[in-house]
Design a protein that fits this description.
258 residues; alpha+beta; Ubiquitin-like (UB roll); Fumarate Reductase Iron-sulfur Protein, Chain B, domain 2; 2 domains; five-stranded mixed β-sheet; two-stranded antiparallel ribbon; 10 helices; 37% helix; 16% strand; binds iron/sulfur cluster; binds FE2/S2 (inorganic) cluster; oxidoreductase; electron transfer activity
C-alpha cells in the first residue's frame, strides 16, 4: 500500500484559549498518530508542543484525545482510521492545558503523594518476604501501570467536574490503594492505618460507580474496575457491615471516651 494525504485537526493554544487548526499531511505505511504529529511539527508547525519519550507505549507521556477518545498517540496506528476520515487530536480534557497537546498532569502526582506507602512488616527483613504466587500475580497486574493517566482523564467523576478533584483520587490511585490493601505483607493496620476506611474517607472510593470507562482506555489492559475497584469496594463494605467490626469500633470508641 502506498502513502496518502490525511486531514488532521489539531488543537493549538494555551491557558488563555485556542482552537482547532487544519493540516493536510502525508501518511506512510505502518505509521502511528505520533508520527503524523511529528511530521506536522517538522514541516508545517515547528512550534507545535507535544510530549513524548519512548514511542513504544511504555513511558506514558504521549497521552491525548484522538477523535474524542483518550489514547496513546504512539500506539494508535493510522490504519485503524479510514483514509477519508478527519482525525481530531486534542489535549487531555480533564487536566489544565499548558500549550497545544501538552497538559499539566500535576493533579495525578498530588494524588499519588496522598496514598500512604507500603508499611514493611516488623521483624522481616528485605529479601525474607514470602507470599503466595497468586498474591504476587495480583499486584503484578497493577504494577504494569505506565502512568499515562488516560484512566484519570476518562473518568466522568472528574472529567466534567473540577469540583470533585479534591475529594477523588481517580482510578489509578484507588487501584494503588487496592493493591496495598490486598498485599499480604502490608502492615498498615498494625500501624493504625485502615486502608479501607481511608479509601472511602480520603480517596473518594464512593464516587466511583463502576462504569468501567477507565478499564476501557487502559493501554496496558489492566482490569482496573473488576480487579481493583470492585474488590476494594467489597472489602470496604464488608468492613462497614461486619457486626464484629462494628461492635469492636463501638467498644473502642466508648473506652477511649471513658
Ligand atoms: S469505574 Fe469508577 S473510576 Fe473507573 S471510570 Fe468509572 S467511575 Fe471512574
Ligand atoms: S491504570 Fe492504565 S490507563 Fe491508568 S494510568 Fe495506568 S496504564 Fe494508564
Ligand atoms: S511516547 Fe511513550 S507511551 Fe507514547
Amino acid at each position: 500500500m502506498s502513502g496518502y494525504t490525511a486531514h488532521f485537526k489539531v488543537w493549538r493554544g494555551d491557558v488563555s484559549g485556542g482552537g482547532l487548526e487544519d493540516f493536510e499531511v502525508e501518511v506512510n505505511d505502518g505509521e502511528v498518530v505520533l508520527d503524523i504529529i511529528h511530521r506536522i511539527q517538522a514541516t508545517q508547525a515547528p512550534d507545535l508542543a507535544v510530549r513524548w519519550n519512548c514511542k513504544a507505549g511504555k513511558c506514558g507521556s504521549c497521552s491525548a484525545e484522538i477523535n474524542g477518545r483518550p489514547r496513546l498517540m504512539c500506539m494508535t496506528r493510522m490504519s485503524v482510521f479510514g483514509r477519508e476520515e478527519t482525525l481530531t487530536v486534542t489535549p487531555l480534557r480533564a487536566f489544565p492545558v499548558v500549550r497545544d497537546l501538552v497538559t499539566d498532569v500535576g493533579f495525578n502526582y498530588a494524588k499519588a503523594r496522598e496514598v500512604p506507602a507500603f508499611v514493611p512488616p516488623a521483624g522481616v527483613g528485605p529479601g525474607e518476604y514470602r507470599m503466595m504466587q497468586e498474591d504476587v500475580d495480583r499486584s503484578q497486574e497493577f504494577r504494569k501501570c505506565i502512568e499515562c493517566f488516560l484512566c484519570q482523564d476518562t473518568c466522568h467523576v472528574v472529567r466534567d467536574h473540577e469540583e470533585n478533584k479534591q475529594a477523588f483520587a481517580g482510578p489509578r490511585f484507588l487501584m494503588r490503594v487496592a493493591e496495598l490493601d490486598m498485599h499480604p505483607l502490608d502492615a498498615a493496620s498494625e500501624a493504625g492505618l485502615d486502608r479501607k476506611t481511608t479509601a472511602q474517607d480520603e480517596h473518594g472510593l464512593g464516587y466511583c460507580n463502576i462504569t468501567k470507562c477507565c478499564t476501557e482506555v487502559c493501554p496496558e489492559g489492566i482490569k482496573i474496575t473488576d480487579n481493583a475497584l470492585i474488590p476494594l469496594k467489597e472489602r470496604a463494605v464488608d468492613r462497614k457491615y461486619d457486626p464484629l467490626v462494628w461492635l469492636g469500633s463501638k467498644i473502642r470508641r466508648r473506652s477511649s471516651a471513658g
